[in-house]
Amino acid sequence: MIVIVSNHTPEERIADLVRVIENAGNQAHISRGTERTVIGIVGQAEPKLAEQLRQMKGVENVVKITKSYKLASRDFHPEDTVIDIRGVKIGGGNLAVMGGPCAVESPAQIDEIARLVKAAGGQILRGGAFKPRTGPYSFQGVGVEGLVMMAEAGRKHDLLTITEVMTPDYVDICAEYADILQVGTRNMQNFDLLRKLGECGKPVLLKRGFSATYDEWLNAAEYILAGGNPNVMLCERGIRTFETYTRNTLDLTAIPVMKQLSHLPVISDPSHGTGRRELVETMSKASVAAGADGLIIEMHTDPDHSMTGDGVQSLFPDQFANLLRELEQLAPLCGKTFDTEKKEPAHFATWVK
User: Fold this and answer.
1) Are strands 204-207 and 2-6 parallel, antiparallel or unpaired?
2) Which of 26, 28, 61, 280 has CA 20 to 30 A from 147's CA?
3) Could you give the CA distance from residue 88 to residue 96 in angstroms, rounded to a whole number?
C-alpha cells in the first residue's frame, strides 16, 4: 500500500503519517518526487489503516499495491533511482560502462586492463576474484589477493571497481575492497546472501537468474532493499533457451519492462548474454537503444589465453575502445548522458583482433 501526499505537505504532517503507519506495526519508506511524495507501507496494512490514512490532512490518495515486491516497484518510487558512487552516476539518464576481464589473474594483467578501460572512457573496472564455475576442476579465481590487486589498479587509474561475491561470508571482505558487489546468476535466489547484502549498504549489481522470471528477479531485489540497502542495480545477462548458437539469449525486452515495473537502474551484460565476441558490440548498442542505464563488458588483453576459458566472449582492447567511441555518439540519441571526460589518450594499434 502507498500513501500519496502533495509536495506542499509540511514535514510535520508527513511525520504524523509515518507515526501512524509505524504504530500499526508496519515500516514506512518515503520517496520524494518532483510533484508528489509517496510513503510506502511494508507489512500487513489492514483496510482500517488505509481508511484512517485516507482521512488524514494532506493525503491525496491511498492505493493498494498487489505486487509481491514493494520497494522495487515503480509504484512505491515513481522516479528513477540514481546511484552516485564518488561522482559516477548510475541511472537517471546516465550511461555507465563497466569493463575488464572475467577474472583477475595477476597484478600486471589487471593494472594494464585498468589503464585501457580508463583510456577508452570507461568508469568502472570489473574483475572476479572468486569465480563460481560449473565444473569443480575449473579455475576458481585467486581469492582475496585478487581483490587487493583490483583495488590497487582501480585507485591507480581512478576507476570504481566491481566484483562478484558468492557467499554471505565473503560480503564483508569484498565490500572492504570493491565499490560495487555483484550477485551472479547462480546466486540470484541465494536469500542468505541477499539479506547480508541488504545489511552491508554497498551498491549491488543483481544479475538475473538464467531461468528467472521478471517477478522472481524483482523479488530477489526486494530482499536487498528490505534489508535497508537502496543501492541496487538489475542486470540482464541472458537467459537459457532452446537456442545453442549463442551461450545465452540476451533478453532485450527485459530492459524496457524493468524500466516500467521498477525504478532501479538496469544494466545489460552482452558478453554473457551472447557468449560470442562478434556479437557483443552490436548487442551493447541495442541495449542502450532499449533503455539500459549501463553495460558490463568483458575485455582482455589476451582473451585466447584467459584463465577462465571465457575469452571467446571478451573484446580486445581496440574493440572496447571503438565501442565506447560509438556509444558517445549513440547515447545522446537515446536520451543518455555518457560522461567520458576523464578519459586519457591511448594508442590501441598494437592490439590486433
Assistant:
1) unpaired
2) 280
3) 8
Query: Cell numbers 582473451 correspond to what residue?
Result: 303
Cα gap 102→258, rounded to integer Å? 26
Place of cell 541495442: 286
Asked if residue 258 lies in contact with residue 300, where contact means CB atoms within 8 angstroms, the answer is no
CA distance 237 to 248: 8
- d(Cα 335, Cα 29) in Å, to the nearest integer? 30
**Nearest by Cα to 151 from 193, 188, 100:** 100
Kindly write down the DSSP assignment for every residue of 170-192, as one continuous string: GHHHHHHH-SEEEE-GGGTT-HH
pTM of the model: 0.88
Given the C-alpha cell 509505524, which residue does it identify? 22
Question: pLDDT tens across 157-194, in order?
Answer: 999 999 999 999 999 999 999 999 999 999 999 999 99
CA 94 to CA 293: how far, in whole Å?
Answer: 6
Report which residue type is found at 103. A
β-strands 88-90, 83-85: how paired? antiparallel
Residue with cell 560470442: 276
28-44 in b/e burial notation, b at 16+ Cβ within 10 A? bbebeeeebbbbbbbee
Q: Which three cell numbers stand for residue 298?
A: 568483458
The alpha-carbon radius of gyration of the chain (Å, integer) is 21
Cα separations in angstroms, 296 against 6, 117, 190, 309, 336: 38, 12, 22, 18, 16
Q: Which of 90, 113, 95, 79 is nearest to 204 (CA)?
A: 90
Q: Please say if the pLDDT value at position 349 is more than 50.
A: no
